[in-house]
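Handout, section 4.2: multi-component inputs.
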Amino acid sequence: MRKLCYSKAFFILAAFCFAASLLPAQDLFELKFTDKIGVKYKGLLVIFNDTKMYMRIAYNAEDMYKVVQVDYSSEHGDTDGSEYLALMGSNPRFITQAGKYGYNPDHLIFLEDQDLPYLTDDPDDTSKLLQAESFKTLSKKDITDAYLREFYASEEADYKAMRKMYGLDLSTVNIKKTPPNTFTGATTLHLVIAANTNIGDIGMSCARDQASLTAEFKGIASSLGIAYKQYLINGDNFTKSAVVNSLSSMVPGVNDIVIFVYRGHGFRWSDQQSAWPQLDMRSSPYTRIDANTALDLDFVFKTIKGKGGRLNIVLGDCCNSSIDITSPITGSEFLAMQANNNYNSDKLRDLFMNYKGSLMATSASPGEVSWANNANGGFFTVSFLQSLREEISYMRDDTADWRDLITNTVNGAKRKSSKGVCSNCTTQNGIYHYDVAPKN
Amino acid sequence: MPKLLMYLMSVLLLGSKACNSNILGDFAKIFKSVDKTELYAIDAFPTPAQEQDLSKTYIADYKVMEYLPLSADEAASLKLAAVNIRNYDALNVKSCPFIAKYAVRFTTAKEQLTYIISPTPCGKTRLVFSANTKIKDKSMDLTQENGLEAAIQKVVEKSTVK
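Output:
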């Protein structure tokens, strides 16, 4: 089985990276290596989002303790059928005193069957190639104040943000703030996920997204101290009637949040006018596509909106390309990641408790296909989770905003499917309908 | 970067060839002894065995709509395209429904391998093996402008002209 060929290191990054520049917000990695003259280096790789990452490298040279920061961009692809992930370093700058010698940025190459990445500071001189001594994801228990101070000065913004993220800033840990929620009464977050986990081609990616989404929103509800209710339509239960029944049984209150995510095949009828895709609610290839199996995303949106919840988010991560079947005439309309709970609770509360309205988005424009990766999930869903984490992160200075979040989601999926990142993909341009505003 | 990458690929990936050769799986061996190649236009969806019309022909449960005769060169082109790993996307999948249109059947003395093709824009293929093999069926996405669809299209255009 092909998957067995992946190395641990490649999987660590591939799972997080998802096609090279597809990195989630605020994940930290540690890299150790020794150069040809015996100098030992310890790197802290900081991933903000799929376009922003850097590494702080600490080492001793010239009788000085030095820390240098190098920016990174990523390339992912396959050559001769083997996958690689390259992190290309640029723009080195010293955080400590520079000393007499500069620092050539290192480039990191992860290969699918190698346990540890390779490094070089000169792509044109392969004799300088080194293999790292260790590479690991850092967990919360690894991040101490002393550890961060190996790489940061005490006044740096990222240092302060990481202290908050990892619970090292006592001013944010011990003081329980009164929620600035302007609503009264209890709030429930209703999460509805329809994921075609049984289907052969994308089932694995759908299952992965379902796990990521449920973990994320369960964590968010817990952080906000609100009730959480989930409705999963998957496996053999992945049918149009199951979605209809779930939506029918859901009765959101006026302060409630409803989030609907579809992960599966999507299409549009050959004579369809609406821009929104049809959701393919079949889990078996033997079932023909017809009115009983196709569900209009726009109809799901209108149904949810009509239920009167305060904030309604409807996301469709699926293709929007035409099939050679015309719209059936119907008599009646009816209806890879791990959770990262390092949220800025104020921003989280702002986003989920102080906004109202409805938002619908789908991953591809009419005529386009939407892409997924079995190891990581749908490009759009992963981008949504990345954007969500970024929006509610300590590392961001601005206020949390749903328009930023959905714009970043659409742009993130577009970037992931662009030629520079995914050579075999066609670019997907998600679309959205935005009707969300601050409560006040 | 390309130079470095090429170097790495040439030196470091030698040890991963066992993985690389498995992109197409064990079935690639079948192509060494193919005796017959056939191309069919088929129904968009498979029909469950209990619902199949005995007077009709089915391939991997898909009803045959038309038999498309092949010249020796066309058969060779299909065989080459079927085994070329550049026609398949090993990393990413499109989230669109598989709508079958063609079936390509390769027959050896011992077994049969059938490619069910869903054409662009939802380019995908399902590989279905005859019951006497232990190889599991497989789904793969086709790359944009893949050679397999191109080879089929040449035959289809020829048939249409006639």
